[in-house]
Amino acid sequence: MRYSKPPVSLDKQLNCLKDRGLKITDESLALHYLSNISYYRLRAYTYPFQDNTVSDHPFVVPVTFGEIIDLYKFDRKLSQLVFGALEKIEIALRTQIIYQWAITNGSHWQIIPALYRDPVRFAGQISSLQTEIDRSNETFIEHYKSKYSTPTEPPSWMSLEVTSFGLLSQIFQNLKKGPEKIAVAEHFGLNDISLLENWMHCFSNIRNICAHHSRLWNRRLTTHIKLPIRPTYPFIKSLRVYPYKVYATFCCMQYILNIVDEGNRFKAELKKLMAGCPLAQEKEMGFPSNWDTEDFWQD
What we know:
Layout: H1 10-19, H2 27-36, H3 39-46, H4 65-105, H5 119-135, H6 139-147, H7 156-159, H8 165-174, H9 179-187, H10 193-211, H11 246-260, H12 266-275
Helix pairs in contact: 1-2, 4-9, 4-10, 4-11, 4-12, 5-8, 8-10
């Protein structure tokens, strides 16, 4: 079927929202927001309050345009908080992976096929790594290329410093189990390597959501995070949380942050932000009742 919907003017967008039952008290302000935040982007925030089984998507939950904007702003703040925390986690993971393999396998361990489980995946990952190296404009990469001819690839502490979190996660997952992989997992308080592999995959997905300004609030994550059964350090007491909701991932993030950045403010900022969560949407993100009173979330 050919797509034939025409573009719609801002005035018509506003009237459409009104006709569907969205309460708008200040039309001038609403038009201002629609001219700077696309109707299509805001649709992700109005969707849960509409009947989407019928073509005109009427609002079935009383809500105002202002409350939708508040929810949008809340989501932006949540993404910024999470993105900042994931930066610390990513740097720590990258550092440990590079160090543990380099100290036992040399500067260019990342290109040694024998260290990997799947040679086909290894070939694809190294190709992707080379693409990211070639695309990088980091001074240290340019310096290596201009000074050294062998190996043609920069050492691991340069190469893996410029790769994406997603590719780093794939490389780590494909590395064979050995003392290096065990050491990385133990550094982050985990006695199960597969758990860290899962966490890295989940963290990189959420990092991409935040980086691309996509909706984090109430998102059903496609990659389900696994919770530790016997963690080395304190964790939430009840593991009966939704693995596809963001709260479960936030718990795992805080667990890592407690190890790599003892004075981190993530838990304090998260509690402060959630205290003002609009439209009682905590449950939609998987937060249980009184989550913030648990010992794990105390300063």
